[in-house]
User: Which sequence fits this backbone?
């Protein structure tokens, strides 16, 4: 019945399913929506949309699907002879009419007026200047009068009311362009989780209690263990500047959203390649620098090290002293990277550029070699692969 | 259930919310409610229960809440201790099964409204663990080998603050409603229902200030309905004249008793700075 609506929604990228469609039909059958189109809009919205970011897209698809199909407000569908509507619809489609309709204050204004006239009119009408009929011109005539002296196209307030709810696009602000489905990424990152028992002993250890009670010759001896806590610690090194800026925001959001999956998560920034200094606050990169040695000293080898960067740069930045684009480095970048990866044995590099483009950039190959091949694309699968590798 | 949910004297519901609630009640599916904090998500469950004349069972979710706790828990420690003391109750394991909120709801004599509050606070897998229970309204008690089936399917209302995304399979089974921030007109009605004896001039000025604050860009936490109502109450208690809120100049001023509206010091600082700039500009 409303299959084209579902089709439209799916084409617009909404994850609407058959289950939801059947629910909608069920609700219609149960008479949840009274026989008016606003209620139907509300009902289908509540049934088919499950995320406020999709509401705006839903509104647009709904408007598209039901454009021209909705009955004029305030008139019950069964009171409208079909032939009239048919003729009217035909008229509405000609370009001249469209221009005139615009002059009247738009389609909505017209529909409202039409509804009023239809409600007033008792029979079929041929010709004439007020009633609606096959040969009539009244609703389309600019600035015509009816006997009560109501001027068409001047009742701004009433016309505004007639704007369909879904055409108001109330939810435009909520439709963000941010890549959706961080849930999948989070689930991929979950592989990194490792549980350890730490802290106060609050959970009953049943096997141990039984064993110890038996040993005590049946006198109850409760054994408790601490609750399991997430024990994964992650150091995140983010490349900033230039081409990486868009990706950094994405990866920062991703990792902070997944923060609950880690026990500790520390961020550091670098530019193109890690050298002797990194920084914590990108806005104050020139006054709040931190020695890379300091990082190695402070965070033990139990941390997992994840670089996020496109690794696209001049090969000199990796191999030569003084090769950095930003400052004079005494030691080449590869020395620093080796220093880091030898301290943090569980390290990986996430690259936001697509995997098939890697072979065309020499520095990516070099970096990947330095990382012993542990470079993964910043996608759900890539993160999954990385997590699998790092969780060993 | 023939009674349908409508705006009450204490709760102003928009038509779309009414339709969503009625759909959920009629088809006996859970209703997921999202929206800015303080727009009345939790209160909705209370009002629905009231409107339908049903009891309300509240289950507040915390970060440590497990899905199992909503069904039942097995109190092994009590049983071991009773076994030690020779209590005859120990022979029946059923004595040590502690019912959860959902069990209570399933076995109530008459239908109830269940509120699962802030479902996004819990672990990311929490909603998945409740899929079957909420869909079929039944679950299996492993210890007693018994299946608990809902005698009456409860009306389930779930709220979320969007801290975590919910799994698709879970969403597919729910009706969804996003409570939008009310516009000025609705807000006036809400204020009216909560404080019928509030002076009109004060209400008008307060709403002016309130909407002005919400327009301030980059506020960390925009004040919402709940905060407005708190603030109005404070204004009434202090018996401030409406003039105290009124400014002839166009620019921002820090409203009296702002602590009820602005909830963190960054926002207060931001506000002070904007007010200062505006004053200097004038």
Assistant:
């Amino acid at each position: 019945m409303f299959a084209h609506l579902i089709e439209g929604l799916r084409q617009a990228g909404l994850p609407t399913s058959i289950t939801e469609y059947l629910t909608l039909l069920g609700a219609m059958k149960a008479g949840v929506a009274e026989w008016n189109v606003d209620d139907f809009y509300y009902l289908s919205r509540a049934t088919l949309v499950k995320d406020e970011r999709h509401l705006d897209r839903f509104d647009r698809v709904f408007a598209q699907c039901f454009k021209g199909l909705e009955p004029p407000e305030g008139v019950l569908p069964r009171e409208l002879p079909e032939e009239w509507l048919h003729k009217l619809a035909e008229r509405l489609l000609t370009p001249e009419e469209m221009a005139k309709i615009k002059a009247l204050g738009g389609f909505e204004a017209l529909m409202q007026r039409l509804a009023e006239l239809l409600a007033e009119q008792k029979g079929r009408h041929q010709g004439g200047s007020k009633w609606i009929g096959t040969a009539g011109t009244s609703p389309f005539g600019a600035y015509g009068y009816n006997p009560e002296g109501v001027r068409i196209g001047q009742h701004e307030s009433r016309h505004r009311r007639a704007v369909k709810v879904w055409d108001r696009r109330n939810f435009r602000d909520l439709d963000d362009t941010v890549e959706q489905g961080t849930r999948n990424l989070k689930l991929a990152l979950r592989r990194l989780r490792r549980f350890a028992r730490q802290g106060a002993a609050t959970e009953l250890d049943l096997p141990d209690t039984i064993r110890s009670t038996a040993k005590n010759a049946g006198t109850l001896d409760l054994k408790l263990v601490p609750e399991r806590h997430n024990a994964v610690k992650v150091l995140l090194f983010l490349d900033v500047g230039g081409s990486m800026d868009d990706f950094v925001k994405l990866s920062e959001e991703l990792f902070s959203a997944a923060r609950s999956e880690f026990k500790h998560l520390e961020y550091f920034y670098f530019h193109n390649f890690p050298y002797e200094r990194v920084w914590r606050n990108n806005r104050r990169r020139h006054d709040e620098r931190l020695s890379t040695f300091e990082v190695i000293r402070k965070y033990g080898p139990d941390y997992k090290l994840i670089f996020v960067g496109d690794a696209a740069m001049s090969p000199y930045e990796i191999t030569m002293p003084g090769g950095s684009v930003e400052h004079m480095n005494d030691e080449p970048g590869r020395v620093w990277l080796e220093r880091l990866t030898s301290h943090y044995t569980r390290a990986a590099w996430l690259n936001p550029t697509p995997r098939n483009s890697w072979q065309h950039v020499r520095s990516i190959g070099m970096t990947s070699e330095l990382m012993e091949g542990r470079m993964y694309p910043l996608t759900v699968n890539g993160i999954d692969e990385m997590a699998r590798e790092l969780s060993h | 259930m023939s009674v349908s949910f409508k705006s009450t004297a204490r709760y102003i519901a928009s038509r779309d919310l009414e339709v969503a609630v009625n759909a959920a009640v009629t088809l006996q599916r859970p209703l997921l409610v999202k929206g800015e904090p303080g727009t009345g998500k939790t209160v909705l469950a209370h009002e629905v229960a009231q409107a339908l004349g049903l009891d309300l069972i509240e289950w507040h979710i915390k970060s440590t809440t497990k899905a199992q706790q909503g069904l039942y828990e097995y109190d092994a420690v009590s049983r071991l201790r009773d076994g030690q003391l020779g209590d005859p109750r120990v022979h029946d394991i059923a004595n040590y099964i502690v019912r959860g909120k959902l069990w209570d709801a399933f076995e109530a004599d008459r239908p109830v409204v269940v509120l699962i509050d802030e479902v996004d606070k819990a672990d990311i897998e929490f909603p998945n663990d409740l899929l079957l229970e909420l869909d079929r309204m039944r679950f299996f008690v492993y210890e007693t080998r018994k299946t608990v089936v809902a005698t009456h399917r409860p009306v389930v209302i779930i709220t979320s603050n969007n801290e975590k995304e919910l799994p698709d399979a879970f969403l597919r089974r729910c009706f969804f409603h996003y409570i939008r921030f009310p516009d000025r007109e609705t807000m006036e009605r809400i204020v009216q229902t909560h404080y019928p004896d509030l002076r009109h001039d004060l209400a008008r000025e307060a709403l002016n200030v309130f909407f002005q604050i919400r327009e301030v860009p980059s506020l960390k936490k925009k004040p919402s309905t709940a905060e407005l109502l708190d603030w109005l109450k404070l204004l009434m208690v202090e018996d401030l004249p409406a003039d105290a809120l009124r400014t002839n100049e166009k620019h921002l001023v820090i409203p009296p008793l702002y602590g009820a509206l602005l909830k963190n010091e960054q926002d207060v600082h931001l506000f002070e700075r904007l007010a200062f700039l505006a004053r200097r500009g004038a």
Summary: The first helix of chain A runs from residue 3 to 11. The beta strands of chain A are 195-204, 224-230, 233-239, 264-270, 277-279, 289-291, 304-308, 347-351, 375-377. The interface with chain B takes residues 15, 17, 19-20, 23, 26-27, 30-33, 38-39, 42-43, 45-47, 49-52, 55, 165, 170-171, 174, 181-183, 186-187, 190, 204, 206, 209, 213, 218-220, 222, 260 of chain A (CB under 8 Å).
